[in-house]
Design goal:
With 442 residues, the protein is of the alpha/beta class. It contains 15 helices and 13 strands. The longest helix is centred in the last third of the chain and has 33 residues. Bound molecules: adenosine-5'-diphosphate (ADP) and magnesium ion. The site of adenosine-5'-diphosphate has 14 residues, from helix 9, helix 10 and helix 13.
Amino acid sequence: MNRHSLESSLKRSLAITVEDIHELVGNFHHDMKAGLGGKLSSLKMLPTFVDKPSGKEKGSFLALDFGGTNFRVLHVNLDGRGSARITHADKFVIPKAVMHGTGVQLFNFIAGSIRKFIEENLIGFEDKRKLGFTFSFPMKQTTVASGTLINWTKGFSATGVVGRDVVIRLKDSLKRCGLHHIDVAALANDTVGTMAAGSYKHPDCDVGIIFGTGTNACYREKRANITKLAKTMQRSGHMVINIEWGNFDKLPFTLYDERLDKSTNNPGRQRMEKMISGMYLGEVARLILSDLMRNKFIFAKSGGRFSKGDFKSRHMSMIEADRSRNLTKVKEYLEGVGILNTSLEERCLLKEICMMVSQRAARISAAAISAVISWMDPQLGSDHTIAIDGTLYEKYPDFRKTILATLKEIYGVKSKRLKLVIAKEGSGIGVAIVAAVAASQR
Ligand code: ADP
Ligand code: MG
């Protein structure tokens, strides 16, 4: 095979065609329905026991954002007139040992960080302080302030947490740290916080999405459609559903996707996440690249290699952002990792691989967005704002542009009805809002 036929065969296997999109949407609807009915489905469709906020929420809240690369503690003020403001925020790196240790260690780490945050920022506590807990993993909730972890994702594996109520765990650790005055008022997925934050500014916001370490989405569902809820709960009104879309598994996989999946600690799970999100994009590209290197199609004269985990989505970002004629940034990067004497043609091929992988991610994302929208609004008769949070979406060149272009392919001019907005700090501010909504429901 020569380079040209190789490139076109790669392109073919990574392409997401219009037919693929139609098939994906149909399968997505099938799994949404099954999930809402409590049947076996790749989409868990988790009830959150909260609806969107009114904007009248008021007060000061602590917010935890836990579920990915960093762990954050925030203090948020809601003014009761639709405005939310972060007064203090600290970031803590989660040590690997804590990610993979025991549940008690994990929650003690969280509680200890909150204690530090309170002391360092001199946050006084005259009264009980309400806390919103963003926990970005699949959990089964029966109220807005409780939930059991269904399974870990994104590489986490702390023992003794799956199947347990994470709020009880957090409360125990808070007590151990002497933080008796903190009341855990709400537990929410980061998508739910993102949608809440988006709703504050955009009343027609009814979808929240994360494109970060992982990917997931939530949307506003009629309670009557959530047939797995108790009959009394189904009567009227709406509830936000956490789709857990990262686990969707009816997709055109390539052999690289299969290889990647097998190398993770959760094989067979989070298959869509593994094609889209920041934790995995680099690895998909690396597997393709390694194949080409082994066959001497690229960097044959250069030496060096990429081992598992060496090539990250931020490297892809940097490569795609290099618009120089000689791809000088790419050259410098390659030299930095010991791949020397590359030709421009090789660097172009590397960039091309990154583009194929990231465009596939963005097109699958757009297909999933259109599946959620067409589930809620089959004729696209109303405007919808989609609130998005996550570094991948914010920083990856053209990720947003490709999603918008694909939505236009799907909907034509009607795609103007869909607004994609960044809900920066969605998972931080948002969960404070959810805590306020929960407090007002009580
Ligand atoms: P989280 O999802 O963990 O809450 P973020 O939304 O900040 O946090 O996403 C972090 C992820 O974004 C990282 O794991 C990494 O995969 C990805 N990432 C970081 N920087 C970049 C970048 N410049 N371009 C693309 N992806 C990035
Ligand atoms: Mg986040």
